[in-house]
Every structure is written in structure tokens, then in C-alpha cells.
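COMPLEX REQUEST
Ligand: uracil
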Amino acid sequence: MKPRKTANSTGSAADFIPPRPTLPKLRAAAAGCRGCHLYKFGTQTVFGEGPRDAKVIVVGEQPGDAEDKAGRPFVGPSGKLLDRAFDAAGIAREDVYVTNAVKHFKWAKDARSKRRIHQTPNAAEIRACLPWLQAEIELLQPRVIVCLGAIASKALLGRTFSVLKRRGLANESPLAEAIFTTVHPSAVLRAPSDQRALAERMFIADLRKVGRYLQKPARTGKRTSASTGKFSPWPTTELPSATSSASTRSSRK
Ligand code: URA
Ligand code: SF4
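STATUS: Structure written out below.
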């Protein structure tokens, strides 16, 4: 698909966002995205998935090998763990829309095996892809966003944001009532075997805080949200409001 406006090309996914987007329109447009060079890597664009009225948007890093082949987010090992953790945390799947900061699988061929090895997307790739995530957030207006791992957290909360310092905590943001940040499920899967069970328990404990938050009544009143145009993709500094909100009183395990 050709970019919408070649004259004012941004060299990012923004060139491909359709006017008056709906989820199906966004998904169809994203399938032809060439907002960065990663479209050459993957089998297909892996767009977000979930109900239009989801209360929670969960943001991962990028599709993995299984997701690239299936064309759906979080269907591989990380997704299986995520499903178990949602269940254990009391978060209903019908409340959740899952997506990624970057919509194409970035990989390199392993020299010895034929496996495709995951490569972390760089700042330019994340910046180029962010308009899709921004559009998903604007459209769904979720109560809560959950960032899994450093890439998603930094994409929405700033490059200096440290997920290790703020795991399981709610951060203030104009994008939603709260942005919760935790580790990526692949980090749990990679934990040394003697720490694996603890890592999974801590991950579930982080998500349980999200589950508890959702039990509270929704905040009313119009958000000055992404739709006001204040959202600045991939902010270069940490948002001043990236501090613990009242919902994080019981912040330890
Ligand atoms: N890891 C991610 O970050 N996203 C996926 O969709 C799958 C694995
Ligand atoms: Fe477009 Fe994102 Fe894929 Fe780059 S990674 S081509 S910006 S969908």
C-alpha cells in the first residue's frame, strides 16, 4: 500500500493511518504499512487484537516467531504465560486488548541453526511504529494500559523510564487512568530454573494489582487524552507525572 500523503511524508506509520479510523480499518491499513524497513523482515504485520470495549490494553514489545507466522499477537510461549497470569490475577480475557509497540518481527538468522533470533527494535523503529499504538489507544480509550517490559514502557513513558524501578506500579499518564508497568513475560521464561517459579509469582502479583484496580469504579469525566493531540510519541524525557498514583499503596509483592 502506498503512503497516504507522500508530500507530507513523516517516514513513519503515521503516513498509513486512515482517516476516521475504526479497528478493522486500522488493521487493514497496517497490513500494508511500510513506515519503516521492518516490513521486509516479517511475514506480516501483527496488529493488536481484542474487544473494541476492552478496559485494558496490554502492550508487548514486538511479535515473536510464532506471532509472525500466525499473524496474531501473543500466541507463542510468552502469550501462554500471559494467559495463565491473567487468569491467576483475576483479569477476564474479554476485558483485554493485546498489542505490541512494534508490529513487525525483527530477527536475524542464527549462524548455526536455522532459527530466527529475536532482535530488539531500536529507537527509530519504535518511533516509526508508535502511530499504530497511539491510534489503538485513542480508539479504545482503555481505563488502564499495561506495559510489558522496557520497550513498551519506554515507548509510552519516556526513554529514561526504568521498569525495574517501577514494576507493578501505576504511572500517571494522559493516555489512560493509569499505566501499569511490569517485566516482559519472556524475562520470566528466561529466568534461571531456580528462580523461575518466583519470577512467575512476582509477574502474577504485578498483574493482580491491575485486576484490583479494575474492580474500582471507573474514573469519570473526559480525559484530556491522546485525542487532544498532546500525546508526543517516544518522549525524550520522562514524564513529570511518572510517579506512583494512589492505587499503588500496596506496592510490594
Ligand atoms: N512478545 C511480545 O512482546 N509480543 C508478542 O506478541 C509475542 C511475544
Ligand atoms: Fe510499519 Fe511498524 Fe511494520 Fe515498521 S514495524 S513497517 S512502522 S508496522
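REMARKS: Strands lie at 56-60, 96-100, 107-109, 116-118, 144-148, 169-173, 176-182. The chain has one domain: 23-218.
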